[in-house]
Amino acid sequence: MNDMRIVERTVDANKAKMTARGVQVYYGATHALKDVSVDILDNTVTAFIGPSGCGKSTFLRCLNRMNDTVAIARVTGEIRLDGEDIYDKRVDPVQLRARVGMVFQKPNPFPKSIYDNVAYGPRIHGLARTKAELDQIVETSLRKAAIWNEVKDRLAAPGTGLSGGQQQRLCIARAIATSPEVLLMDEPCSALDPIATAQVEELIDELRSQFSVVIVTHSMQQAARVSQRTAFFHLGNLVEYGETGQIFTNPKDPRTESYITGRIG
Ligand SMILES: Nc1ncnc2c1ncn2[C@@H]1O[C@H](COP(=O)(O)OP(=O)(O)OP(=O)(O)O)[C@@H](O)[C@H]1O
Ligand SMILES: [Mg+2]
User: Fold this and answer.
1) Which residue's C-alpha comes closest to atom 19 of ligand 1?
2) What integer is the mean pLDDT of 216-239?
């Protein structure tokens, strides 16, 4: 199989791929995220956990400037990717989002064919020289997202005609087709059955050798299974961040302990 990756990257699991310092987010008068500072490590799966409304999606969207698209959102503080300030006005958010890809909480395929959903990013970023190369990227991405067998005979059919769980795996294929350096996943398995969930978890583990992955999840079991680092959010604060094993077996903050033992949520 052709190697779809065009950029050689060295593996250094302790290197900070992204750094956030003093990040605050306001939606109008609502202070949704309060002074969040964190290092997202390279070649690591980082899980964001915490009760509904605590700011997980809000912070995830800060990491690729998706909050730019929310008119009432205001973001302050500093976020860097490989040391570069992603909020600098010279940074093109479209280019940024090719490097920091995202899978959303609700599947959102484009109103295009299954093939074109996946080929869209590689086309606009010029990642394939020939139709054969593009076909290869599409197939590899669909295989990695564990949906190839279900769609290989209907690549020209609309992506919106798939089931919810299939649409989500299509969106995962679309997100990985541009070989992002960081992949943000907001509850990627909430619409999936246990088999597809297991396949996506396997994929996440595999992606870690190439990217850094950040996953929001409501499932503690999933966080414990797939991540090496875990961040616990509560009421807009990043309460605790550390190695996943430590967070789940020996949390330092009583709020973390209450959450993981099911007393708040
Ligand atoms: N577009 C928006 N406009 C106004 N307020 C918003 C918007 N998006 C989020 N908020 C508010 O910001 C806070 C954090 O929301 P966020 O969606 O980040 O939570 P979450 O941790 O992802 O929750 P969930 O687990 O339910 O997805 C909430 O109080 C929410 O109501
Ligand atoms: Mg959310």
Assistant:
1) 53
2) 96
- What does the pLDDT read at residue 30? 96
Model pTM score: 0.91
Comparing C-alpha atoms, which of 33, 43, 47 is closest to residue 11? 43
Cβ of 74 below 6 Å from ligand 1: no
Residue 50 has pLDDT above 90, yes or no: yes
Give dist(CA 91, CA 83) in Å, integer.
13
Ligand 1 centroid vs 137 CA: distance in angstroms? Answer: 34
Local structure of residue 212 (DSSP, 8 states): E
When pLDDT is averaged across residues 125-140 and rounded to a whole number, the result is: 96
Which residue has its alpha carbon closest to ligand 1 atom 4?
27
- What's the pLDDT at 252? 96
The CATH number given to 11-260 is 3.40.50.300
- CA 8, 44, 199, 176 torsion: positive or negative? negative
Cα(35)–Cα(229) distance, rounded to whole angstroms?
20
Amino acid identity, residue 39? D
Q: Residue 106 and residue 103: Cα distance in Å, rounded? A: 8
Predicted local confidence at residue 265, as pLDDT:
56
**Which has the closest alpha carbon to 236: 48, 47, 13?**
48
Domain boundaries along the sequence of the chain = 11-260
pLDDT at 7: 43
CA nearest ligand 1 atom 29, residue: 53
Tokens 């967070």, residue located: 247
